[in-house]
Amino acid sequence: MLDEKMKKAVPSVTGRFTPVTTTHAKGSWFHTEDGQKWLDMAVGIAVVNTGHGHPRVIEAVKAQLDKIVHAQANMFYNPTVVEAANKILEVVPGEMDNVMFVNSGAEACENAVKLAKQATRRPVTIAFKGAFHGRTHLCMALTCSKAVYRGYYEPLPAGIYHARYAYPYRTPASEDPVDYAISDLRKVITTECWPDDVASIIIEPIQGEGGFIVPPDEYFKEVRKIADEIGALLIIDEIQAGFGRTGTWFCHEHYGVTADIVTVAKGVASGFPLSAVVSRSEYFDKCKPGTMGGTYGGNAVACAAAIATIDAIREEEMAANAERQGEKLRGFFAKMAETYPQIGEVRGKGLMDAIEIVKPGTREPDPAATKAFAAEVVKRQVLILTCGMYDNVARFLPPLNISDDEMDHAFNVFEDAAKAAWGS
Ligand SMILES: Cc1ncc(COP(=O)(O)O)c(C=O)c1O
Q1: What is the CA(210)–ligand 1 centre distance, in A?
Q2: 275 and 362: one domain?
Q3: What ligand 1 atom has the least distance to the C-alpha of 107?
Q4: 134 alpha carbon to ligand 1 midpoint, in Å?
Q5: Which residue's C-alpha comes closest to atom 10 of ligand 1?
C-alpha cells in the first residue's frame, strides 16, 4: 500500500477527484490497491474509449516495443507512424490529407491555431465562452469555462476574442438559441477585431468542460458559413467528443459540416499519449519547415495503439453501441427527472451525456446538489465526473463498449445515489 509520505511526492495542484489508488484495470472496471472493483464511467476523461487494456491495443503495443519506440519525426519516416496518419485520414471527415502528430490535447489546439495563423498570415483567433482547449498559455487564453483555468496566469496571449456559444437551456426564453449566439459572433468579429484579421474560429462540437452543452445543428452550419464569409479557417476541437464517443466517428458529423482543421487526442490511442492536428496539405504547405513540431510527436508505440484503437472501434462497432447505450442512459435520466426536479436538463449524444442540476422549480445552478450526487455515486464505487461553468453538471463517459449489465449496474447506483443525495 502507498503510504501518505510517499504520496506527497505527487503535488496536489493537478486536483484529484477520488482518494483511491488504482493498481490495474480491465474493460469497464478498475481495481484499487485495497481490493475494490469500480465501474469506470470516466475512462481517464474520455481517453480509454475501447475499455481498459483492450487486447488488440495491448498486443499491437507489445509488438511495436520490439521494433522501435522513438522514431523521432525530424529524423525519419516510420511505417507505424505513417500508417497511423493514414488510418486517421480514413475516419476524419472532410478533404483532409495531412496529420501532424503531437502529444496532448493542448498541444494539438496550440498547433492548430499556429497552422491557421501561418497559412492565412492573419493574427486573430475567435473562441467561445464556456470553451476548454487545454492548459498551456495559449490554450488558457482560448479557454473560458472557469476562472481556475485562467486566474493567476494573466497576462495571457492576446489576439483572442470570445463569442457566445449556443446553449439552449440557458438562452433567455424570449430568444432563439441559434440567433442569440450567432448575432453575438457577428458582433465580436465586427466590433472587437477586423473580420479579415481572423485566422481561425476554434470550436468544440459539444462543449466539454463547459458543461456538455449540445448546440443545435443549425448553429454549427451558421458558424461554418461565417468562417467562409470572412475567409477564416474553422478548427473543430474533437479532443473529447471524437473517436466514436457520440455515436459517429466525429461529433461534427451530426451537424452536416466539415472543418478545415480537426484536433484529436484522448480516445485516439486508448490511453497512450498521442494527439494530432488533421488538416489539408494546402495549409500545411504554406508553413515553413521547423516552425511547428516537437521532440516526441508521433511516438511509434502510441501510433501502434492508435492503429489498433481505430480497428477495434470499427470492427467491434463501438460507435453503434455508444449510440444505443447513450439513448438508454438519457432515457433513464429523463425518467428520473420526473421524480427529481433537481435534474433540470438531460443532454448529450452517444456516450457523451450529462445532467444539469438546478434548484427545484428554477434554472438556478446547484453545485452543492451536484457535488452531493457525485459523492454518493463515487461512494458506491462508480466513477463519474462533474463539469460545467457553474459546477452543476454530472457527466457520464463510459467506455464505448460498455455492456447492458454494466449499464444496469450504473443505473441502480444512480437511483440509490439520487435518493441519498436529494431525498424522496
Ligand atoms: C475539448 C478539449 N480540448 C482540449 C483539451 C486538452 O487536452 P489535454 O488535457 O490533453 O491537454 C481537452 C481536455 O479535456 C478537451 O476536452
Answers
A1: 12
A2: no
A3: 11
A4: 5
A5: 105
Among 315, 334, 351, identify where a domain stops: 315
Q: What pLDDT score was predicted for residue 19? A: 83
Q: Which three cell numbers stand for residue 35?
A: 481490493
Q: Which of 288, 315, 342 is the last residue of a domain?
A: 315
* Whole-angstrom distance, CA of residue 324 vs CA of residue 314: 16
Full domain range(s) for residue 348: 4-53+317-422
Relative to beta strand 233-237, strand 261-264 is parallel
Per the CB < 8 A criterion, the answer to whether 96 and 89 are in contact is yes
Ligand 1 centre from 102 Cα, in Å? 13
The string of pLDDT tens digits covering residues 84-93 is 999 999 999 9
| Tens digits of residue pLDDT in 188-236 | 999 999 999 999 999 999 999 999 999 999 999 999 999 999 999 999 9
Q: Are residues 300 and 388 in the same domain?
A: no
* CA 380/CA 422 separation, integer angstroms: 16
Contact residues of ligand 1, CB 6 A cut-off: 45, 104-106, 109, 132-134, 204, 208-209, 237, 239-240, 265
Which atom of ligand 1 is least distant from the CA of 135? 11
Q: In the 8-state DSSP scheme, what is residue 359?
A: -
State the closest ligand 1 atom to the C-alpha of 208, by its place in the atom list counted from 1: 16
How many domains does the chain contain in total? 2
Would residue 77 be called left, alpha or beta, if left means φ above 0 and alpha means ψ between -120 and 50 degrees? beta
Measured distance CA(248)–CA(254) in Å, rounded: 8
* Cell 505513417 found at: 82
User: What is the DSSP-derived secondary structure letter of residue 210?
Assistant: T
Hey, is 396 helix, strand or coil? strand
User: 237 and 116 in one domain?
Assistant: yes
